[in-house]
Amino acid sequence: MNMFLLKGKRTCSGFGPRKWLFGILIVFIAGCAFLQHKKKGLIGRATTQHPQEQLPPLYSGEELRSKFSYSDINLYQNSQCVCPTETWGPRRIEVFNLKKYLNPNDAEAMKARRKKEYEHYSKRHHSHGILIAAPNSPLGYPTHGVQVKPLHTILLPGLQVNADLRNYVVTLEASLGTFDTLVNTLDISENVVSGRGEKRFVISTPDQNLLNHILSHITYTSNVYDIDSLDIITFTMDQHEAKIPVSIRQPPMIRLYDPGAEQKIQSLVTITTKTLLRYDKLKALISSIRQYYPEIKIIVADDNNVTEKIEDDNVEQYFMPFGKGWFAGRNLAVSQVTTKYFLWVDDDFLFTKDTKIEKLVDVLESTNLDVVGASVDGNHFSFRLLLQEGGEEGDCLHWRGGSYQEIEGFPKCVLTGGVVNFFLAHTNRVLSVGFDPKLNRVAHTEFFVDALGRLRVGSCSDVVVGHQKKDLSVLGSKDEKARMYNSFRTNTNEQVTMKLTLHYFKNRLSCFTKH
């Protein structure tokens, strides 16, 4: 049939040809839209709902251990650590169950004392529960980052309601602060808001715009002085509820060090060391330092029985009771530092052309690290510390050699948990941890155990300090001074027991493993 003969005629369905074409076009567009939405997942597919008893099982304990292990340690935090009973694994990892090293006559009493001290510690270092947001809530609110100084007032950001209701009743409740609004509602009605200056604040209005205007100008005032606490604000409307964390924190007073107009290394760094029965080694160290850093200050903590005065205008020598101890000497030396950084060295090290303090300064100045170690005679030694939470018996600490990861921008440096006795550190940051003076003989790792979670530690292999050769004739010598020094340096069974007992109580550990 000639298409022109259709003009003015009706089809059996009552539609003309143009309407037919228009209808086909609409169906085609709708079909394309459906397929596109389905492709994007915007149109749900029919799914089979599993009965509760037919839901797939969780991983077994063994599967969890293999799935979330790091350096042979299960670090899935929802499980408590369990100390192996003995050395285990193909790599023969040493295991120290600390309760075995306690005095049996005092073990139970010590455990009770530790529990009491831990409860006191927890009050000062509190942790807070997890906040879970309800699904599809019409409430808008901040979930993180709200901070106020003690007794100060802030605007609470981000409060709003997005719901179509006949009347809105919104409540804010706090425990450590009070509420108000910058909006003067008296010209409207006295009943719109109630609870100004109180811990419970209520807004009641049928006007959503007015409600959100008031919410956007809500103030919170801290009324309890505490330098570090947390208030949880409850924000409710009808059956909807939200929790808003507010950190009440007094930022610590800023302390800056002036490096001087010329930015000389001696204005930034002080060298510190501790000496006992080795004046010959100490003098060799100082002589090597003066070859490369003639004006840098050196602080010496000295607990010799027969003392010698070091003749150097830039050496400060502090005398201690004889054999006072390794960490006591570190505390004394670092406490006298007046520069931003200190460089710790042993008294038998030697500076060489590769001992570039400036490189270590650059690392600390360019990163958020607190401590950066280096290499001793080419030995780039570092280790990791991994802490597993435990129950009533205490936590588990694992020592593993190596590092966590590289430090961006410094290809020769890594992030780690502990380093050798040659390191540059922020003076204030290290003083905040300190060196336990109970450790008066062989100790090093113990400082980094105390610093875990407090200091960020790195290590760089491209800065090297030399090490004076041991005098082999002294090792078997009957010389009184040599024998006395060796007695101080020997890590006896009594020393090991004392340190492990200290870890049990002070660090609340149940076991320590090392590989």
Automatic annotation (TrEMBL):
CDD domains: Glyco_tranf_GTA_type
Entries under InterPro entries matching the protein: Glyco_trans_2-like, GM2_synthase, Nucleotide-diphossugar_trans
One GO MF term: acetylgalactosaminyltransferase activity
Signal peptide range in chain numbering: none
GO biological process: carbohydrate derivative biosynthetic process; UDP-N-acetylgalactosamine metabolic process; UDP-N-acetylglucosamine metabolic process
Main location: Golgi
Keyword set, alphabetical order: Disulfide bond, Glycosyltransferase, Golgi apparatus, Membrane, Signal-anchor, Transferase, Transmembrane, Transmembrane helix
Transmembrane segments annotated in the record for this chain: 20-37
Annotated Glycosyltransferase 2-like domain residues: 278-378
GO CC annotation terms, alphabetical: Golgi membrane
Membrane protein topology class: Single-pass type II membrane protein
Localization: Golgi apparatus membrane
Pfam families for the chain: Glycos_transf_2
Entry similarity comment: Belongs to the glycosyltransferase 2 family.
Binding partners and assembly: Homodimer; disulfide-linked.
Protein's UniProt name: Beta-1,4 N-acetylgalactosaminyltransferase
Gene symbol of the encoding locus: b4galnt2.L
